[in-house]
From TrEMBL:
Organism: Roseiflexus castenholzii (strain DSM 13941 / HLO8)
Entry protein name: Hydrolase of the HD superfamily (Permuted catalytic motifs)-like protein
GO BP terms: defense response to virus
A Pfam cross-reference name: Cas10-Cmr2_palm2
GO molecular function annotations of the record: hydrolase activity; nucleotide binding
PROSITE patterns: GGDEF (PS50887)
Keywords: Antiviral defense, Hydrolase, Nucleotide-binding
Length: 727
C-alpha cells in the first residue's frame, strides 16, 4: 500500500486550497507534497512545529493566509438502508429499492461533485463512493453545501430513504498526522499513559496496530525519534506505536464517522436541522399495499396484480421493472401518473447488466455461461417463487449476508487518502468478482412456469455488493455452496492485493476441527481480510424482514468466532447458518432458540456452529458422503433425537456405534468421514473424541450431528450424481 506515488490526491487538495482565490493550484502542489509525501513517519513535537512553520510560510507566500490553509472532508450516505430496501416483501420492489439507493450513492453523489466543482476537480476529489457511503475532499467554502446536497439527493430521488452527511475542515498537517497534532503529541500521550486511571480509555482509542500496518512495521529506533530525550521502556515503545498508529489520516475518518452517527441521532448537529420525510396516514385514505404505513396515491394493475401504491413505493416498483428490462407498455402505469423518471444510466448500471457483461468476458467459459448459451432468452426472476423453484427441494430460498472482518479498524489506521482509495477499490473489486464467479460456478439458469408457459430465469437476486459487504438471494439448496465459493474467492483475492503480515497463519496451518483437505486447504493462502457470513435457508413464503433479522444475527455470531481466531494469527472468516423448515421454529432470536433447543451455552452443545470456512467445507463434504452412501434420513434424525433426550454423551455414543454397525453399507463411510475427519477444537486436548461428540476447548462437548441433520436436505451432490435435470 505504501509507495512513492501514493498521494494521488495532491492536485485535488491543492485545488481545494486555492478554490475561488484565483491562485494557480500548481504553485502550491509542492507545498502539499512536502506536507504529505515527504513528511517524516514518526516525527517529534519539534519536527512537527518546524514542518507547520514551513508549510504555513510557503502557503502564505503563495497568497493564502493561515486561516485559509484548510480543506474540507465530506462524509455521508444512507442510513437505515435495510429498513428502506425490505419495507416490502415483494421482490420487484426490493430490487428497485436496492438499485435506486445504490445508484444515488455510487453515481449521483459523484455527479453532484462534478456539477459543483467542475468535471476534473469534482472527479478527482472522490476518495471513495460505494457501500452506502461517500468520502470526498471539497473546498472549505463548499463543504457544508455539498453535505446538505447529499441529504437532499437521497430525499429527492427516493422520497423516504434516510441519509446523513457531515463536513469538517482540516489543515495539511492534520491530513497527515490526524486531529490537532500540535496540541497533543507523543510526549503528552506518554505522560497520560502512565496514569493507570486513564489507560483503559487510551487503550480503547489508541488500539494496537494491525499486523503488517505502517505503525507495526516501524522499528524501535524510529519510534524513539518521536520522543527525543526520553528513555523509553518496552511498554513505552508499545504505547507510542499505538499512538502513531492512530495519528494518521484514518483518525479523521473516525472523527467524521462519529459526527455522522451523532447527526443521525440528533438531527440538528453539525449543520442545518436534518429534515425527515413524513407521509401522514389519514383515516379516510387507502393504505399503500407495499409499505402499509403511507396513503396510496395510485391504484391499478401491475404485472397482472391489483396494487395500491404511494409514490415512494411506486418508484421502487418502477425502478425494479426497469432493471428487469420491462418495456414502456409495462411501465406506463407509472409514467402516466407520476412525474419522476429514472435516470438513463440507472438501467445500465444494474447488477443484471454487470452480470451479463461478466459472462461475456471473464465468465465466458464458466458452467453458467455454457448452460446459458443453450437458452435463447434468460430473464431475471419476477419474484422469490421463481428463485425457490430452482432449489431441490423446491420452494426454498437462501439469503447470504457477508461482511469483511475488521475493515473499519483497517480503514481507521490507513496513513493517507490514497491508501484509503486503493483499499476501498480492492475491497469492492474483490467482493464483486467473488460473487460473480461463485454464481457462475454454483448455479445454472432455471426453468420456471409463467401462466402455463415455459420461461428460463437467472435463479438469484443480488441486492447489494457494497465495499466489503454483500447481500443476495439464491436457491435454498445452493446457498451453502455459493457462500463458501464467495468467501474462498474473496479472501484469496485480497491475500494477493492486500498482503497479510509475515507471521500470519495460512489457511492450511491453523488447527481446526476438520482434518481432511477442502478447497480452502488444497491451494492454501494466507488471508489478510477475512469474510464472515450468515446464511439462512427458508421457505419462499417466509417474511423477508424476519429472515433479514435472522441473517444479521447469524453474521454477528460468525464474526465473533473470526475475532477469536486472530489470537492464532489467522485472519480468515467464519460462517453461521440456519435452515428453517417452518417460520415458527424461531419465535425470538437465534441465541434464545439455540439456548433452548441446542443447549448452546451448556457443557453439552448439540451444535458446533459457527464454523471456519475450512470446517464448513468439511461439513458439506460430510453431508454429501452421507447422501452418497444413502444413509437413511430416519436414522440421522433418530440419532439426533437420542442426543437431545439422553443426558451425558456415553448413551448417545453407544447408540451411534450401534447404528454404524447396523448400517453395513455406511459403516466405512462413517468411520472415514466422521471419526477420522473430525477432532476436538483444541490441539492441546489429548483425550480422544467420543464420536459423534467432540471435546471443546472451553470444556464439555459439542457435536456436528444436529448440524448435519439440519443441512442434509439442502446440500446438493455434484451434477451427474444426483440425477437432477438441469437447464
Amino acid at each position: 500500500m505504501m509507495n512513492a506515488d501514493r498521494f494521488t490526491f495532491t492536485r485535488a487538495i491543492a485545488a481545494c486550497l486555492v478554490y475561488g482565490t484565483g491562485i494557480d493550484a500548481r504553485s502550491v502542489e509542492d507545498v502539499v507534497r512536502s506536507a504529505l509525501d515527504n513528511a517524516p513517519v514518526a516525527p517529534s513535537k519539534a519536527m512537527l512545529e518546524e514542518l507547520h512553520t514551513t508549510v504555513t510560510t510557503r502557503l502564505h507566500d503563495a497568497g493564502l493566509p493561515e486561516e485559509a490553509q484548510r480543506v474540507a472532508l465530506v462524509y455521508g450516505g444512507a442510513t437505515k438502508i435495510k429498513g428502506y430496501v425490505f419495507e416490502s416483501p415483494a421482490l420487484p420492489e426490493i430490487r428497485g429499492a436496492s438499485a435506486l439507493l445504490e445508484w444515488v450513492n455510487d453515481h449521483h453523489l459523484s455527479a453532484i461533485w462534478r456539477e459543483t466543482l467542475g468535471e476534473s476537480l469534482g472527479e478527482s476529489c472522490i476518495i471513495y463512493a460505494g457501500g452506502g457511503s461517500l468520502l470526498a475532499f471539497a473546498p472549505v467554502a463548499k463543504g457544508a453545501e455539498l453535505a446538505g446536497r447529499i441529504e437532499q439527493a437521497f430525499t429527492r430521488q427516493t422520497l423516504t430513504a434516510n441519509s446523513v452527511a457531515v463536513a469538517a475542515t482540516f489543515s495539511l498537517l492534520e491530513l497527515r498526522y490526524g486531529r490537532r497534532p500540535l496540541d497533543f503529541w507523543a510526549d503528552a500521550f506518554l505522560d497520560r499513559w502512565q496514569n493507570l486511571h486513564l489507560r483503559p480509555e487510551l487503550e480503547a482509542y489508541y488500539y494496537a496496530p494491525l499486523p503488517g500496518s505502517a505503525a507495526a512495521n516501524l522499528s524501535d529506533d524510529a519510534i524513539r525519534t518521536a520522543v527525543p530525550g526520553r528513555a523509553l521502556t518496552v511498554d513505552d515503545i508499545s504505547a507510542v506505536r499505538r499512538f502513531l498508529n492512530r495519528k494518521q489520516f484514518g483518525e479523521l475518518v473516525t472523527i467524521l464517522a462519529t459526527m455522522f452517527n451523532r447527526r443521525r441521532d440528533e438531527r440538528a448537529y453539525a449543520g442545518a436541522p436534518r429534515v425527515l420525510p413524513l407521509y401522514p396516514m389519514t383515516p379516510w385514505a387507502e393504505r399503500c399495499a407495499s409499505s402499509d404505513v403511507r396513503p396510496a396515491e395510485w391504484r391499478g394493475t401491475v404485472a397482472d396484480e391489483t396494487r395500491a401504491y404511494s409514490e415512494p413505493s411506486a418508484r421502487k416498483r418502477y425502478v425494479g421493472q426497469l432493471i428487469k428490462r420491462d418495456d414502456d407498455d409495462q411501465t406506463r402505469w407509472y409514467t402516466s401518473t407520476f412525474a419522476w423518471r429514472a435516470p438513463d444510466d440507472l438501467r445500465n448500471r444494474s447488477w443484471e447488466t454487470r452480470w451479463e457483461a461478466f459472462l461475456a468476458k471473464e465468465g465466458a467459459a464458466t458452467p453458467y455461461r455454457c448452460a446459458m448459451d443453450q437458452q435463447p432468452n434468460v430473464t431475471p426472476p419476477r419474484d422469490l417463487n421463481e428463485i425457490g423453484a430452482a432449489s431441490r427441494p423446491d420452494r426454498y430460498i437462501g439469503i447470504i449476508y457477508a461482511d469483511g472482518n475488521n475493515v473499519g479498524r483497517l480503514i481507521a489506521t490507513l496513513s493517507t487518502p490514497d491508501d484509503l482509495h486503493q483499499t476501498s477499490a480492492h475491497l469492492s473489486t474483490a467482493a464483486t468478482d467473488a460473487v460473480f464467479k461463485a454464481l457462475a460456478q454454483c448455479l445454472r439458469p432455471a426453468e420456471v412456469r409463467r401462466k402455463r408457459q415455459r420461461a428460463v430465469v437467472h435463479p438469484f437476486e443480488i441486492l447489494t455488493i457494497g465495499g466489503d459487504d454483500l447481500l443476495l438471494i439464491v436457491p435454498g439448496s445452493r446457498a451453502f455452496d455459493v457462500a463458501l465459493a464467495i468467501a474462498s474467492e474473496f479472501e484469496r483475492s485480497l491475500a494477493q492485493n492486500l498482503p497479510a503480515p509475515s507471521d500470519a497463519c495460512a489457511s492450511n496451518a491453523i488447527h481446526t476441527r476438520y482434518i481432511r483437505e477442502t478447497l480452502v486447504t488444497r491451494e492454501p493462502y494466507t488471508p489478510s481480510v477475512g469474510l464472515s457470513a450468515g446464511v439462512v435457508v427458508a421457505q419462499e413464503s417466509a417474511p423477508i424482514f424476519f429472515l433479514r433479522d435472522l441473517v444479521e444475527e447469524l453474521l454477528k455470531r460468525a464474526k465473533k468466532l473470526a475475532r477469536s481466531l486472530t489470537g492464532q494469527r489467522y485472519y480468515g472468516g467464519a460462517v453461521d447458518f440456519m435452515v428453517l423448515k417452518s417460520v415458527t421454529m424461531v419465535a425470538d432470536t437465534v441465541e434464545t432458540f439455540r439456548k433452548a433447543a441446542l443447549h448452546d451455552e451448556s457443557d453439552r452443545r448439540l451444535t458446533a456452529r459457527p464454523y471456519t470456512w475450512h470446517e464448513f467445507a468439511g461439513l458439506l463434504e460430510t453431508a454429501r458422503a452421507l447422501k452418497r452412501s444413502r444413509f437413511p434420513r430416519s436414522q440421522l434424525y433418530r440419532l439426533r433425537r437420542v442426543m437431545e433426550t439422553t443426558p451425558g454423551v456415553m448413551t448417545s455414543s453407544l447408540e451411534y456405534l450401534y447404528t454404524r454397525v447396523r448400517q453395513k453399507d455406511a459403516n466405512t463411510m462413517l468411520i472415514e468421514h466422521i471419526e477420522q475427519a473430525w477432532r476436538q477444537a483444541d490441539a492441546a486436548l489429548r483425550r480422544p473424541a467420543t464420536h459423534p461428540w467432540l471435546l471443546r476447548a472451553a470444556g464439555g462437548h459439542e457435536t456436528i450431528w444436529s448440524d448435519l441433520a439440519e443441512i442434509y436436505d439442502m446440500v446438493s451432490l455434484p451434477e451427474g450424481e444426483d440425477g437432477q435435470r438441469t437447464v
